[in-house]
Amino acid sequence: MASPATTSLPVPSQHLPSSTSAPGLPPGFPSMLFPPPEVEVAEGDPIPINTKFGVSYTVPGDWRNSSRGVTGWNTDFGSVVYGGVAMYDYDYCPEHRDGATKALTGMTGRNGVDIPTAAFEASRDAEIIFRSKPGDDVVIEYSAPVDFEIDGAPAVRYSAQISNMTQKFDCDPVEATFDVVATEGFSNATVAVFMVQTDRRVEGALSETEVEQIISTLRREQ
Description:
By secondary structure, the protein is mainly β. It has helices at residues 115-123, 126-130, 208-216, and strands at 5-8, 44-49, 55-61, 64-75, 78-88, 103-110, 139-142, 146-150, 153-163, 175-184, 191-200, 219-220.
């Protein structure tokens, strides 16, 4: 697994997939150049993360708010980029130059596809994120799609369980999870895609209950 690189805006071009043929927004669809400002809360309070896609979520108060930055993986298999970022236990593995996290959330947008397709395609980005080379021993198991609603809008979720991961450093995980939710986008993209990536079998790893709690906070921004 390649460590995600997190930066401030603007997005470095080397982390961006080619957009020469990317579908554009429908005429008159709302858009914004930069994400909303970070929400300041009292220390220890839950942290709302607002995104430029018109969908928000909340993380616990001990997370790091990087909602105006981007994070991504750039590997031999391709590139994956998310904005609207929050990180849990940042830099717990100091050997990593860019800082490792035990859990990571973010949001991106897609145009020209429906919600089920966006969810499926984004979930399969696990092949980019977690594989170190073609034909390696990493095992990725995908769930069936789960249909639900977010504030009345349709949503589709996929979960991936990753095991037998290669360790570069002793503190690297050997197991992880990758959850993706696609729903209606209200700004900048017609479909908003949320992800939460968690390391497993590391001290202080996020529990499944905590992952479910974060996903349950997804909502349309008011």
